[in-house]
Design brief:
By secondary structure, the chain is mostly helical. It contains two helices and no strands. It has one domain.
């Protein structure tokens, strides 16, 4: 029995030494492999973040371009309406005089009224056009 236990002890020592030798050769390679995988994962994350940033920049550029076009169209509409109003008001000075008189009446009825208007146009109406 002693002979068997000595044999088992030697086998156990050989197995432990073999495990230590295997661990000493395999662990450094495992660490290198693990670091390589970690580096690849970080690289992929950075590439993905870069793609997201590029797509966001493209979306912002497209949005700015569309907003610019919308503002240009709005300005064209304002310009056209101002032109129409200007033409019609030039043709109808009586309407402008009516609006001026209504504004004066409204201001005169206000308790905070402190401005005095002196009509100087024909028939005591305020002048609308420049005198040349």
């Amino acid at each position: 029995m002693e002979n068997n236990s000595g044999r088992y002890l030697i086998i156990l020592i050989i197995i432990v030494i073999a495990i230590i030798i295997i661990a000493m050769t395999v662990l450094p390679q495992y660490n290198v492999w693990r670091r390589e995988l970690s580096g690849k994962a970080q690289l992929r994350e950075q590439e993905y973040a870069k793609q997201i940033a590029v797509e966001q920049a493209k979306a912002e550029l497209e949005s700015a371009s569309l907003l610019k076009e919308a503002e240009i169209e709005r300005a064209k509409g304002v310009s056209a309406s101002m032109e129409i109003i200007s033409e019609n008001l030039e043709k109808n000075a009586n309407y402008l005089q009516y609006l001026a008189i209504q504004a004066q009446i409204k201001m005169a009825e206000s308790p905070n009224h402190t401005t005095v208007y002196i009509p100087v146009g024909a028939n005591g109406l305020p002048l609308i056009k420049d005198i040349k």
